[in-house]
Amino acid sequence: MLKKATIEDIKQIHKLINLAASKGEMLPRSLGELYDNMRDYFVYIDNGKIVGTGALHICWEDLAEVRSVCVLSPYRKKGIGRAIVEATIEEAKFYRIKHVFLLTYQTEFFKKCGFYITDKKDLPQKIWSDCIKCPKFPQCDEIAMKMDIDY
Q1: pTM, whole model, 2 decimals?
Q2: pLDDT at position 81, please?
């Protein structure tokens, strides 16, 4: 079952994201950051357990970032990640956001979801406010991807 995250979900989301980060699949998130951005998150629940998560973070009037999409290994390749991404895109449409982007190591998955690779230099300076806080800054090895939304 896919739903918007609640305050009770944050510690499980934190554990899930940081497990994926420990494997080099994504960047970690702090509990404070997750609580600050809780309303951005979706969770996928199976038998009462969060097995997937992802977020849509609005950056500007026509730009949002898809963040922290991850699914526990045993639940991958079952459509959960795609369902989470599609939920973020539907939310972007609801808010009339014209462009969504992401930074990822999982380019093939996101290509299948409709994203295309773009140059990080083409992303507005606004997003770099988050990048400055990243332990990989300024040597980011993530790939920038983007989707233009029609609604």
Answers
A1: 0.90
A2: 97
